[in-house]
Amino acid sequence: MLDSFSRAVVGADAKTGTLSTGEIGALRGFIAEGNKRLDAVNAIASNASCIVSDAVAGMICENQGLIQAGGNCYPNRRMAACLRDGEIVLRYITYALLAGDASVLDDRCLNGLKETYAALGVPTGSTVRAVQIMKASSLAHINDTNTEEYGGKRFRKMGSTQGDCSALTAEAASYFDRVISALS
């Protein structure tokens, strides 16, 4: 697994040179945005169970056949496996977001995932839909856009670092898109 610093050093070493001014500037920016990055990871990790269970519930609402006899979320052990897999994918996305690099996501989670799911008969369309729902929910938590209107009595404001989180949101979205692409 590489983080942004390791990736920069490996790149400079490969070209047998030193870090360029632009690369050093990018690393400075990475450090300056560190609290936002930690807040984003915390927002996702502390709400992981809700994010995953809501995504699986949303996927099932759109395809009721999944919980019928013979469906991929029937019986309970298959539903539990679905929830477990969702949490694993979300955990690796948070690892990638924390490191600022997708290599851990690619190597440890996505490598062979499509083939494994095909062998197990897991419907990729439903899985992709669950990841899309997790993406929307996670990005809302990163941007701290959840409101009392949507959360009701379970509303909890994370209070993340103030400022522009658009670059961080785009980075997190790209990790979810990698998962969707790997499954499609």
Characteristics:
single chain; 184 residues; 10 helices; flat; phycobilisome; Phycobilisome_asu/bsu; thylakoid; hydrolase
In short:
The chain is mainly alpha-helical. Helix content is 71%, strand content 0%. The chain is built from 10 helices and no strands.
Count of helical segments? 10
The proportion of residues forming helix, as a percent range, comes to over 70%
**Number of β-strand runs:** 0
Count of discrete domains: 2
Keywords: Antenna complex, Bile pigment, Chromophore, Electron transport, Hydrolase, Membrane, Photosynthesis, Phycobilisome, Protease, Thylakoid, Transport
Protein name: Bleomycin hydrolase
Membrane topology: Peripheral membrane protein
GO molecular function: peptidase activity
Word description of this protein:
It is a single chain. The chain has 184 residues and is an all-alpha fold. It folds into 2 domains: 1-32; 34-183, Globin-like (Orthogonal Bundle). It has 10 helices and no strands. The longest helix is centred in the middle third of the chain and has 24 residues, at 76-99. The chain starts with a helix and ends with a helix. It is found in: Cellular thylakoid membrane. Keywords: Antenna complex, Bile pigment, Chromophore, Electron transport, Hydrolase, Membrane, Photosynthesis, Phycobilisome, Protease, Thylakoid, Transport. It comes from Brasilonema bromeliae SPC951. It is a peripheral membrane protein.
